[in-house]
TrEMBL record:
It comes from Achromobacter denitrificans (Alcaligenes denitrificans). Residues 272-431 form the MmgE/PrpD C-terminal domain. This is MmgE/PrpD family protein. Residues 16-251 form the MmgE/PrpD N-terminal domain. It comes from the Bacteria. Pfam families: MmgE_PrpD_C, MmgE_PrpD_N.
Amino acid sequence: MSQIPPIPETTLALHLSRRRGQPIATATRERLAQAMLDWFTAGWSASGTAAADRYRRVAQDCHPGPGPAPVFGGASMHSNGAAFANAGIAHIREIDDAHRAAMLHPGVVSITPALALAAAGGLTRRLAADAVIAGYEASLRIGEALGAGHAAGFHATATAGAIGAAAAAGVALGLEGERLHHALGIAATQAAGLWQMADDGAHESKSLHPAFAVRNGLAAAYAARAGLPGALRYVTGARGLYRLLSGDGPLEALDGGLDAPERLNTVTIKAWPCCAQLFTPLDAIRDLLDAHGTTPGEIEAVDIEIYTHALKIAGVDWPARPAETCFSLRYVAARLLLAGKLGIEDMEAPDLGAADLLAMAGRITVRTSDAFQREFPQLRPSRVTLTLKNGRKLDTLRKLRRGDPEDPYTWTALQARMRAFAPAMDDAAARAIAAWCEGFADAGRDGEVCAPPPALFGGPAR
């Protein structure tokens, strides 16, 4: 790395390189196992949908022919095709992990390329772990640096996520130092993900963002391995991401606090099957229902106050089709208030014209708060006020989400969540997936070959 000047991107590449082979703290190992379980949950949850068929078809068209890498709900493919398909499928349900400060989905861009390459052979569990941790570290540090201004216009899973995918793939392929830096720089030049797709109602294509991010990250790692150079100041340069893609976050996130625990430990595992921007109002409603036992018939009006950015991403007033349900605050709030729960079936097969649903939705007022926005993205404030027909008012404020690092899941609760979000999964598959993922928490298994069997993906055996 002596040929590259001491810039933040250099420091980040060195940090990622030096981490490989260093001891992994027990807490980080356990968090890695949880991240793996979350990824399998997300993939299984959507694997039987029509959308998953489309992503498998696109992957096969782009990367034709069979291969060794398992695909959720389908036949194995070449590693590149499997990575594309699995990244798309694992994001369909909007239940893959998230991050407050970076405002992206890190697991889908970090785990997907690492396991696709592992299926081709040559990776130990430890090398796969190093690759995944590097993907989280790079994507989250860069996402934090780019900030809320960037995330308002660009899907950071597609921008910072592409660089995270390159980090994961690069470490899995054995790239270090200068070569790894070039891989990240090549990926950065392909960063995309315009939110215009949401403005134009193309929500069914949102999963292309992580799919393309993983595709570009893998290609960047292959290119760097072949000796091709990449942008060095890909974030901080005059024509880098920060300046041209509306960056306004803390640039010290790129190379500061390198002694802190890995960024993997700061991720949110999602409690609700919808966009994470809507979680605090749902948590607040759940808190009110639990505390007061309020029934739908008692509710006269519902006032939801939320930070402004939430509706820039999840701004569907009322869904016209299932793909829009997870981006509609009025819909998810109305369903939760009516049923006391919000499940996959509410998102996949909604009865959008149901009289009771429309009546409840009509009582809901949604408004934004500049004061709440000032606390974003480190916090996600939302206040919910229920006005009852007897005149009583119930209200609560939530700033953190269930599943945030401050309110984490237990391993047992994560397994229950997996079954709830992936009802098609049988007991044998659930046990096998949990056992395989839990192996990443055991340092004694680091030397084992990392070859996830097709059965873990619900696909046909090879």
